Amino acid sequence: MDNVFDYGIIGSGPAGYTAALTAASVGKKVILFEKDLIGGVCLNRGCIPTKTMLHSAEIFNEICNSSDMGIYADNCRIDFAEIAERKRAVVDKLRNGLERSFKNSGIVVINTEAKIIDKNTIAADGQDYKCQEIIAAVGSSPRVIKGMEYDHKLILSSDDVLNFDKLPKSIVIVGSGAIGIEFSRILKSFGVKVTVIEIAENLLPLADVEVSKRVERLFKSQEIEFYTGISVEKIEKLENSVEVYISNGKIIEADCTLLAVGRVPNEVEKIEGVTYIGDVAGSVQLAHFASKQALEKVAGIPFDKNLVPSVVYGSPEIAWVGKREQDLEFGTYQKAMIPISALAKSQCDNALDGMMKILVQENKVVGAHIVSREASSLLQQLVIAMQAELTVERLKAVCFAHPTYSEGILECLMRLK
Ligand SMILES: Cc1cc2nc3c(=O)[nH]c(=O)nc-3n(C[C@H](O)[C@H](O)[C@H](O)COP(=O)(O)OP(=O)(O)OC[C@H]3O[C@@H](n4cnc5c(N)ncnc54)[C@H](O)[C@@H]3O)c2cc1C
């Protein structure tokens, strides 16, 4: 092997693997460095394991609560070890698939830590590799709060929770972004007592405020305890439990605490001429944003950074794109909203919790906010409409199948005033 490549890529998460596979597909000579497991955070400690566990949680919930539909599942129970094993199997299968794709595409994979020397040189394992282009896609790590450092037993990061082989009886989750909300839903479904502490005024603070309020109502009905506008002052570690001191004077006891307080870009040499994409670039920390950045860089396919969908998984899903109502000046926009229960399909499915809200300016959709079963796929239709700059009239002219959640889009638009 001569050590000269078209692309040298560091990191094999969504940013790195998309860049590598895209470059290799047009015949470029690619070398990829990964110091840990192939697939990065998304595949090994993020999107995929959480969604696999969440699916088990949703099925369990649905089975246990299906007497309304004439289905009785007495003694419905979980075997958490088997759930954890299925999660591992899904992750392993996808990782093996990715490794096969690298092999079939002729990508040279070096399983070691790499260091950027200059804009055309990467050093790894005592060798220098010359690359026409270097892409650093080295990702991010859980934020550490001073005085509340992870000990991986009582003070946990999302990595630790994904490694549970036994469930705790109770947990305090600090932070209610997507990760905090998803873990609350998973653990509560499995019978863990969950308390969420959020420093902002509302749960899911990055969402439209009406969506946040809806999530708060859902949490109340699901008996997930939460405090908003409250910070954590101290975590006292006892032998096998924690005491979490919060700013309203309360002390919450639990078996452990999960800090879901954001992620920070991993450290990497900042060198002119090197491209930094994905979580390390420090803007939007989402897998699909990372892979679109890779496509933009390697295949020259641009994308609209203002039209990046956000999804929080679980029952019901929460999804949004574009402007939130609190971002818009009063009187400059139109708003249409429906409860999801207005849709025949939600009645058929007994999935009545949720809402859809569409915000319009100058006759075009500028924001969409959905809490519903299938919200992730539903939202994508509006992302396409927004990307294509369809007018409200053009969207109203679309024929939506019945009964579906999609016809909520038409229902909503017809209510625009
Ligand atoms: C619990 C959780 C759930 C999530 N769920 C979702 C979701 O549902 N949807 C979504 O869009 N996003 C989700 N995310 C975020 C998503 O995982 C990240 O946005 C995504 O992984 C970023 O991809 P990346 O390629 O930038 O970096 P990463 O996936 O972090 O990959 C970076 C890779 O670089 C390697 N690396 C670092 N330094 C070096 C070095 N010097 N040499 C060699 N290798 C190196 C690392 O080992 C790592 O494998 C979730 C994250 C978490 C933690």
What does this structure look like?
The protein is of the alpha/beta class and 417 residues long. The protein has 3 domains: 4-141 and 264-299, FAD/NAD(P)-binding domain; 144-261, 3-Layer(bba) Sandwich (FAD/NAD(P)-binding domain); 310-414, Enolase-like, domain 1. It has helices at residues 14-25, 40-45, 47-64, 80-104, 158-162, 178-189, 209-221, 287-299, 344-349, 375-387, 392-396, 407-414; strands at residues 4-10, 30-33, 108-110, 115-118, 121-124, 127-136, 140-142, 155-156, 170-174, 193-198, 225-228, 232-237, 242-246, 251-254, 256-259, 263-265, 275-276, 310-312, 317-322, 334-339, 355-361, 364-372. α1 runs parallel beside α8. The longest helix has 25 residues, at 80-104. It is globular. The relative contact order is 0.12. The mean pLDDT is 97.
**Range of helix content:** 25-40%
CATH fold assignment of the largest domain? FAD/NAD(P)-binding domain
Gyration radius (Cα, Å) is: 23 Å
The shape is globular
Write a compact overview of the structure shown:
By secondary structure, the protein is an alpha/beta fold. 33% of the residues lie in helices and 26% in strands. The strands form five sheets. Strands 1, 2, 3, 4, 5, 6 and 17 form a seven-stranded mixed β-sheet that branches. Strands 8-15-9-10-11 form a five-stranded parallel β-sheet.
Comma- or semicolon-separated keywords:
417 residues; alpha/beta; FAD/NAD(P)-binding domain; Enolase-like, domain 1; 3 domains; seven-stranded mixed beta sheet; five-stranded parallel beta sheet; 12 helices; 22 strands; 33% helix; 26% strand; binds flavin-adenine dinucleotide
